[in-house]
Amino acid sequence: MKEKTKVIESTQSLGNDLAGVMALQRKLTGMERDLEAIQGKLDDMKIEAEKLAEEHPDQAGEIQGHLAGIQEVWEELNATMKRREESLGEASKLQGFLRDLDDFQSWLSRTQTAVASEDIPTSVTEAESLLTQHENIKNEVDNYKEDYEKMRDVGEGHPRLQALDTGWHELRRMWENRHSVLAQAFDFQTFLRDAKQAEAFLNSQEYVLSHTEMPTSLQGAEEAIKKHEDFLTTTEASEEKIHGVGEAGRRLINDSNANSDKIQEKVDSIQERHLKNKENANELLTKLKDNRELQHFLQDGQELTLWINEKMLTAQDMSYDEARNLHSKWQKHQAFMAELASNKDWLDKIDKEGQALVAEKPELKPVVQQTLEDLQRQWEELEGTTRTKAQCLFDANRAELFTQSCSSLDVWLKNLEGQLHSDDYGKDLTSVNILLQKHQMLENQMEVREKEVQSIQSQALALSQEDAGLTEVDGQQKHVTDNFSNLQDPLKLRRQRLLASKEAHQFNRDLEDEILWVKERMPLADSTDHGKDLPTVQLLIKKNQTLQKEIQGHQPRIDEIQRRGQTQSQVDGERQSALEERLVELGELWDQLKAETDKRHDRLIEANRAQQFYADAAEAEAWMGEQELHMMSEEKAKDEQIALVMVKKHQTLEQALEDYAQTIHQLANSSRLMVTSEHPESERITLRQAQVDKLYAGLKDLAEERRGRLQERLRLTQLKREVDDLEQWIAEREVVAGSHELGQDYEHVTMLRDKFREFARDTSTIGQERVDGVNELADDLIESGHPENASVAEWKDGLNEAWADLLELIDTRTQMLAASYELHRFHQDAMEVLGRVKEKKEGLPSDLGRDLNTVQHLHRQHNTFENDIQALSGQVNQVQDDAARLQKAYAGEKADDINRSENAVSIAWEALLKAGQARRLLLLDTVEKFRFFNMVRDLMLWMDGVNLQIDAHDSPRDVSSAGLVIANHQDIKSEIETRADSFTACVDLGKSLINNNHYASDEIREKLAQLQEKRERINRNWQDKMDHLQIVLEVLQFGRDAYVAESWLAGQEPLVRAAELGSNVDEVESLIKRHEAFEKLATAWEDRFVLLEKLTTLEEHEIQRRREEEERARRPPTPPPAEVAQSEAESQAHDSAARTSLDQTTLNQTVSVNGVHSDNDTSQQSLSQSLSVGQKTQPKRVCKPKQPERGSESESNGPGRDSGLASSRLEPSATLPSRGGAESDPDTMEGMLCRKHEMESHSKKAATRSWQNVYCVLRKGSLGFYKDGKSASNGIPYHGEVPISLGDAVCEVANGYKKRKFVFKLRLGDGKEFLFQAKDEAEMSAWISSIISSMPTGSGDSPVGPRALSRAMTMPPISPNSGEGGGVTMRNKDGKDKDREKRFSFFGKKK
């Protein structure tokens, strides 16, 4: 160990470079494996030392001392190893950073040197080349940016980083500056190239403008102007190029170009020269036009001067001495004077033109003024000479002159006539113009001769005054005048023909001029000069475009010639055919010119494309030649970083090469298109394109070869780096995998296991991937035949061994942690399950609920609770299974802990199950209890409802209604019997709960007693009500039979009491027969009267009660026992209630016998006293009914009468049916009516005003509405409407309503208004009367008032003593000894 320590310490001075540090790290990795072996030996020594100490106690101290020394050396070795590993790690990082920093600094210096170049391009091509190189440097800098940022992160705080940052930022700043300089230089060279072309144009223009001279003839002036216009067209074509140069220069100046001063100077110079050329060209054009006008004026003046001189010679001829030629002289002179007069306009015209020319061009005033003055002077001399000669000739011989004048004029007229009939209209334009001029002279002469004719006329007039040959003079004068007049029309006709001839010859001249113009331009269009380079071709294209524009501008003149040719007509057919041929020739030449121009344009475009292709191909060859130098470099990388930089740089070159493929492709497409289109230079283009393609293919092959070499070198350096990094990474992972810590508790071991799982997963995934990657990379290198195959194989084997050792350590550590985790997890699970079981037990509620719903909810909750417990049972079983399994694997103290945990869980689980079962049974009993209580409550409520039904029935008013009430009462009995099963089920349930010892048995027993008691009570009530209804039915039947009997007795009484005995035998016999018939009838009625005399059940009960009272009165009073007294009191109370019910029913209904009703004001007290023993009651007085009817008892349910099921009312009403409308209670009425709600208030109409059928029930002071009679019986209003009050109401016939018949109106005090429709007028009147009668008044009704109904008395009169005999005498069983009055003592009597 000391040796190892010395070896480790001896490495302190090593590792000054990255290779040395990495070698030391690998060496320390090997030493770590040795230390692990030493660790095993040390452990063995400890065990052996303990054994030796036990075997040799006397030497134990020495042995322990040696062992402690060894341990101290071991700890020192580990500490030294750890310190060295840490220092080597830091040194490795530092050396790697320093190496990368040195490499980066070296690259940075080289790049700064390349960027700092001060080369300034002198041409556009050179500027483009420098810009491309500079962009490549930028791409390289961008590729190094990631390395720069990585070095800054790794070497944060290192002192050399400041210099690195400065150099990096300085490089970027230098690149930006250099890029700006190169871009400006490129723009400047491009500007200079364009400016040079523009200056060439300007030089040419200046030369032309400076060498143009003013012509001295009109034709020369015309040709000079035409030539200058062509020059201006060319100037305009180049003006766009000059403006483009100026715009480019100004843009560069605005961008602050470094050569702004030169650019500005050049732009100003070009602009100044261009403007100056334009001004000079315009001035020259103006001068040429002025010169043309001047030459035109001078030519006109010269022609007039020649003419004046010629005429002056004629005017100066004075040889007229001989008389024979005097007249001819005179005539000639007259013609001469006429010619002078006609040409005076010529002088005036020249004078006006001269004045206008002077006004427009003052600089021409001397020449023009001199010419005009000379012409005026010569003209005045000519006129003076002419006038002198005329006067001399006229004075010579006036008479002879007249005769000669007439004869000479006549001769001239004949001469003129011959000329006018001439067929010579000119053979060309010049001859026609001459003929026109001659004709114009003839016309002028005609004007002069006209004056001469006028002179002859004046002379004839003068001669006639002298009376010398008057007749001859008039004849001559008339003859001359007529001949002169006859020549006017031929003169005009000849002029027209001459003008037509001139037009034809002018057209021929124009046609010839256009043909000549086309022929002059044809050589330009036919030219085969297509230029030798790109600028020359572009210039030729512009010239050809100028020619095309000129041809396009000349098109209207050609069209005009063609149009005029179509409208020309010549007399001469031969000339016409010649004209057509010339027109055809012009059209062909014009079409040929345009076609040749277009062809030349196409040829020039093709030449331009070819020249452009040659220029692009030359540029591509130059670029590829430059790139080829880079591809042939043999530089090799020393490490991965340099190799990566070289690869990136090569990728940049390859990308540029790939990008340049588009340019090559474009060249190929261009050449293909030109070859396909059969370009004249197809062979040369194909050859040039083949050269470019071959050069590009060779360049790509070189790039491919260089990339392969660089990639091979890069892969080797990457493999070396990967192997070193992976070995270091494996060494770091082995330290973690060799740990022996297994955790103190479940959380700790879980944390350790999870972390180690993540560690193992990451190690296995990442490490295997990295090892596979390195192996694959090594195999690839070996298979590819790399020169360093042996080193690669050695690296691979060492790496695989280290990786296998790491995986073995990880597997061992994983198994140990899994066993520890399983044990701690068991204890944790047991604690958690025990806590959950206790929590469940503590959370078991004790509340049993207050009603059935609550208990059922608690039962459902308990079911959920039991389900949760079942889910918990799986966890308990899992704990038990884990305990059984772990007890087999562990022994001793750990086995005891496992057993204790399992027992605690099992005991708590059994206790929880028992508590849940007890709770479930208790909730089931509670459910049964509340279910029983609900059944009892439902039956109790039902019995309360039945009691209400039993008590709710009104007592019947007649026999039929009594039968209906009894039938309804029987239905209640049926319902009670139907409920018997429910009572039985409820009682059985209660008894079963009591028998099962339910915890609420006392309460259940009490509920059962209450139910049975109430059931017995409801049966008794029903029976009592049934007995009462039977009594009422018996009473009603007795009243009906008594009424019938009384009616029969009343009908037979007059026959019995009649005093008539007959006045003769027949009458007596008749009376006897009638009496015999009466006796027979009386015999038949005897049985009925016997039945009437039989006591009713009510009377029997009353007799029985009185007898009991008499017997109790006879017995001495003895206090009964408490129970008996209580029972008797209850019995008496029950009997009293029954009697009271019967009495009240009878009194309230005021039962009548024989259909006689009690008065409305009869009090209940007085009627009640009529049933008491010892009480004497005087019945109120009744009136006889108007029309008693039979069989009306069947009409108990008729309209306006209450059903027997209706609730009892406070006001008295009859129980028996009325005998008709007149006998019914006017305050009560029922029936179906059709109702319409008209008004809601005094000023508001009702929302719903439709007619509706309603069942109307009229009570005193109110009117209710129901759906039908059944709803009225049950008290269910129509749509919940409250009965309306009739206070302050008005009821009358609705006379204003015409839509329906039998309609009456009811208007209430609050403004509501209703319309009612009856079925007929009688029913309408009855309702109106009843409603009016039912309206409340301020005071009570009088017993004998008009509203009281009349009563009928059908029995015989009672003796006066009957009222004093005291009270009602009850009948005995026989009934014959009693007073007759007893039969009707139960009913009210008449007074």
Automatic annotation (TrEMBL):
Q: Which SMART domains does this one have?
A: PH, SPEC
What one GO molecular function would you report for this record? phospholipid binding
- The residues forming a coiled coil are 21-55, 127-154, 253-291, 432-459, 862-896
**Compositional bias annotation for Polar residues:** 1138-1157
Q: Where is this region: Disordered?
A: 552-576, 1102-1229, 1337-1391
Main localization category = cytoplasm
Keyword terms = Actin capping, Actin-binding, Coiled coil, Cytoplasm, Cytoskeleton, Repeat
Question: What spans are recorded as compositionally biased (Low complexity)?
Answer: 1163-1172
Q: Which residues form the PH domain?
A: 1226-1336
Pfam families in the cross-refs: PH_9, Spectrin
Does the keyword field hold Repeat?
A: yes
Cellular component terms (Gene Ontology): cytoplasm; cytoskeleton; membrane
Question: Gene3D superfamilies, alphabetically?
Answer: 1.20.58.60, Pleckstrin-homology domain (PH domain)/Phosphotyrosine-binding domain (PTB)
Record's subcellular location: Cytoplasm, Cytoskeleton
- Any one Gene Ontology biological process term? actin filament capping
Matching SUPFAM superfamilies: PH domain-like, Spectrin repeat
Q: What are the Basic and acidic residues biased-composition ranges?
A: 1102-1114, 1371-1384
State the source organism's domain of life: Eukaryota
What family does this chain come from, according to its entry? Belongs to the spectrin family.
Protein name per the record? PH domain-containing protein
Q: Which organism is it from?
A: Pogonophryne albipinna
